Amino acid sequence: MIFRLRAVGVVLLLLTACSVPPKEAQKPVAAVPQVHTETAPELMDGADGETLAGGCFGCHGFEGRSFGPATPSIAGLSENYFTEVMEAYRRGDRFSTVMGRILPGYTPEEVRRMAGYFSSREYRPIKQGTDWRLVERGEKLHRRYCEKCHGEAGSDPQDDAGRLAGQWKPYLRWTLKDYLVGVNRAERGMSRRFTSMMQIQGVESLEALVNYYARQR
Predict the structure, then answer these.
(1) What is the pTM assigned to this prediction?
(2) Which fold has domain 125-217?
(3) pLDDT tens digits along 77-109
(4) pLDDT band at 1 (very low <50, low <70, confident <90, very high)
(5) Which residue, among 117, 122, 120, 121, has the nearest Cα to 53 in the 3D structure?
(6) Does domain 46-124 have CATH number 3.40.1190.20?
(7) Which part of the chain has CATH 1.10.760.10?
(8) Could you give the CA distance from residue 45 to residue 130 in angstroms, rounded to a whole number?
(9) Radius of gyration (Cα) for the chain, nearest Å?
């Protein structure tokens, strides 16, 4: 009985082997045609402004609204001003601890894309404490020395001026002092007015301006 079962198994194995066609006789699989496509020019042109701007959020806050006193809010800056400041960092005309090392990694075209993005974002003044006595004096100083370029209350600047209203007090204080000692290079008109204010009003006028701008909403 065992011999018969083994014999039947051998026969079935041989029949199965014979039913499989040799490898060279199998029907060849049709090759998948290769389709050549061209990448859209805009994809070849690099990242858009929003993608590039994401690298700034770590210091300047989401969409450029700062959450740290050492860095300014850059949401809502004019495209011209943003681009001019970035190129000043690239040239070394503006003092920085980080920006001077970051800018060489971006092309001028990428900077322009980021400028377009941040100019379209909503600016939100930062809420912080101020000294009302200094605020009153700062308002007078602003109208006399700064309003021409930085607009009413420092919140409606020209294309080539920065937004001062609602910025962090520490940032404003350090930046104004940088201009005072010549670390930052001011354009001729600003330099002249700034020097005049220091001579007539004294160094304490800086703190008055800082409190005034910080108070604006």
Answers:
(1) 0.71
(2) Cytochrome Bc1 Complex; Chain D, domain 2 (1.10.760)
(3) 999 999 999 998 888 888 888 898 888 899 999
(4) very low
(5) 117
(6) no
(7) 46-124, 125-217
(8) 47
(9) 34
